[in-house]
Write a structure and sequence with these properties.
The complex is a heterodimer of chains A (279) and B (304). Chain A is an all-alpha fold. Chain A has helices spanning 2-6, 10-37, 41-44, 60-68, 71-102, 108-120, 127-136, 143-147, 154-165, 169-177, 182-190, 195-211, 214-219, 228-238, 243-263, 265-278. With 304 residues, chain B is mainly α. Chain B has twelve helices and two strands; from the N terminus they run H-E-E-H-H-H-H-H-H-H-H-H-H-H. Chain B has a two-stranded antiparallel sheet.
Chain lengths: 279, 304
């Protein structure tokens, strides 16, 4: 084993070369984003173009972006949207998933069909009626409107049901013999065993809520109620070719998630791989 | 007597269990009915209706569908969507397979590479679209600058009708390759090493091992990634919406079905027509998924 590591064969060098080349391609757009955000507008239209910004402490583009969009509100809105969606998806789906996996009740299959139906349909099929409900409730431009389509989660129910099905029935029966009722068995015995799956669902839900564009774009048009994604779209409309400002906005929109990713890298990748393969 | 009480207490216990079960599924089921099941039928109903005065709706028969099937813009959007799928899926899957293979090799720094390739997944497509749009810029974009520097012909990538979809497809592949590779990698790692040892004993080289062991045993994961990628491509909206705006001369060659759906429902305000379009998207996705499930019998190997 050790020897294999030490001896760099031609093949291994080739693998490293390919991976490093690919990594440069993956990282370069982000580097370019940051560099451009530190340039002045004339600097971006210079011929021949420059690679590095003249002054790394030129934050004018950031000032412009912060001036045209209330980024603090956007962070707050996006953060709250993510937290609420995670909380709702994990709680409602856990309860339903346990019942579908470990309990018997009349009508179980028909009710589970409802979950599967939602999963098979593209989410845009629901979007016009959902939008009409929000308008009827007079709830446009609110946090409720942002969270609305994610009040419950068919995907979460389906995904966590898999996790509960993996728990041996003997464990459930033992808890019942100890005097737990069905809900206590779920809450005290089974739920703690699905931690990995719950955090995977949380990561999945967070990334989805953070990236989603169409829904926040249509329900919330007030500048103070935008999300980071829909805010960027507004910025694009305002600064069509002012790329330093657009790049500054993009950097501002992406950095909280990138930092979270760098800290919780393992959970992110595991979570995504798990939600991917188990569904 | 005592027998009777046990059965009746048993049945109350069962009834209590039923009650608990219903309470546990109730929030999800009620939510799904209100948010998804009713809206689904409403969308179907709207596709056969047109909006009348004062927010009322009236039955319009097949009018929306006839309009749709007679619209050249609609067929163009369908073609754009399918073209986008053809441009992204095969190359995307091939690249992810290669990347998964590279990441599975005995090398150092695997976690670092994995983290780098996965990065675009945690950045909102809106931000990704923005920086690529800047790199594709005809006059000042870095891509044309580099091409000019090495003496290759430049192109107006996003405003040229014949390259606009290809340019967006590159971004879509770039965004997804790390994610798909990680899914495939977990499939690769599930293949028992003893298979390779046995093949080596039989004298099979690396390439033969790849063809006869890796590909067939990885096929369930590949199939899953393929289905997921096809659906994502057929539902493309964000990237194209952010990179190709309405004033772009190449918009007709880029706007996908969901872009047309968004425009008709929330910009033009023709919700009946938009409903017909989104049902058409669902129809295409169903056909694709069905064909792939039929086709999988020929190449997907489930018995490890």
């Amino acid at each position: 084993m050790d020897i294999q590591y030490r001896k760099l064969s031609v093949g291994t060098i080739f693998i490293y070369l390919l991976l490093i080349l690919g990594s440069i391609l993956m990282i370069f757009p982000f580097v370019w984003m940051v560099f451009t955000s530190l340039k002045t507008l004339p600097e971006t239209m210079q011929i021949p173009p420059t690679f590095f910004p003249k002054d790394f402490r030129n934050f004018k583009a950031y000032k412009d972006a912060l001036y045209s969009l209330p980024f603090l509100r956007l962070y707050l809105n996006t953060g709250l949207l993510i937290l609420l969606r995670i909380f709702l998806a994990v709680t409602t789906s856990s309860a339903a998933a346990y019942a579908f996996a470990k309990m018997e009740f009349p009508g179980k299959n028909i009710l589970f069909m409802i979950v599967l139906t939602q999963l098979m349909l593209p989410s845009q099929i629901f979007i016009i009626p959902q939008y009409q409900m929000i308008t009827k409730l007079n709830a446009s431009n609110s946090m409720f409107a942002l969270v609305f389509p994610g009040l419950v989660s068919a995907f979460g129910t389906f995904f966590l049901r898999q996790a509960y099905m993996g728990i041996p029935n003997e464990l459930i029966d033992a808890a019942k013999l100890d005097g737990c009722n069905a809900f206590q068995t779920f809450y005290k015995v089974a739920l703690p065993l699905t931690k990995t799956s719950m955090s995977a669902l949380a990561v999945f839900t967070a990334l989805f809520a953070y990236s989603d564009l169409m829904w926040p774009l249509i329900v919330n048009t007030d500048k103070n109620m935008l999300t980071l994604a829909s805010g960027l779209s507004t910025l694009r409309g305002q600064y069509t070719t002012n790329y330093p400002t657009l790049m500054a906005g993009s950097v501002l929109a992406m950095f909280p998630m990138v930092i979270l990713y760098l800290i919780f890298q393992k959970q992110f990748i595991q979570g995504i791989a798990l939600t991917g393969t188990k569904s | 007597m005592s027998n009777e009480t046990t059965t009746s207490s048993k049945s109350t216990r069962i009834r209590k269990e039923y009650f608990i079960a219903y309470m546990m599924v109730a929030p999800t089921i009620i939510g799904l009915i209100i948010l998804n099941i009713v809206p689904f039928f409403k969308t179907i109903w709207m596709s056969f209706s047109k909006s009348a005065l004062f927010g009322a709706w009236e039955f319009a028969g097949l009018k929306n569908y006839i309009d749709m099937f007679q619209s050249s813009e609609f067929w163009k959007a369908t073609l754009n969507t399918l073209e986008f799928l053809i441009l992204t899926v095969p190359i995307g899957i091939a690249l992810s397979l290669i990347l998964a293979g590279l990441l599975n090799a005995k090398i150092r720094g695997k976690t670092v590479f994995r983290a780098i390739y996965f990065l675009p997944m945690v950045v909102a497509p809106a931000a990704v679209a923005m920086v690529w749009k800047w790199m594709y810029n005809t006059e000042f974009g870095i891509i044309n600058t580099v091409l000019r520097a090495v003496g290759l012909p430049t192109n107006n990538w996003l405003t040229n009708p014949s390259t606009v979809l290809l340019s967006v497809a590159v971004v879509a592949i770039w965004s997804a390759v790390g994610y798909d590779a990680i899914l495939l990698l977990s499939g690769l790692q599930a293949i028992p090493l003893s298979y390779y040892d046995a093949a080596r004993v039989d004298g099979a080289g690396g390439f033969k091992q790849f063809i006869y062991i890796t590909l067939p045993l990885l096929s369930p994961t590949t199939f899953f990634v393929l289905i997921m990628r096809c659906m994502a491509s057929l539902k493309v909206f964000d990237l194209i919406y952010m990179m190709v705006e309405d004033s772009n001369p190449a918009i007709q060659s880029a706007r996908p079905l969901l872009g047309m759906f968004y425009r008709q429902s929330f910009e033009v305000g023709n919700k009946g027509y938009a409903s017909a379009i989104v049902l058409w998207v669902f129809f295409i996705i169903s056909i694709f998924t069905l064909l792939q499930f039929i086709g999988q019998k020929k190449w997907v190997n489930y018995d490890i």
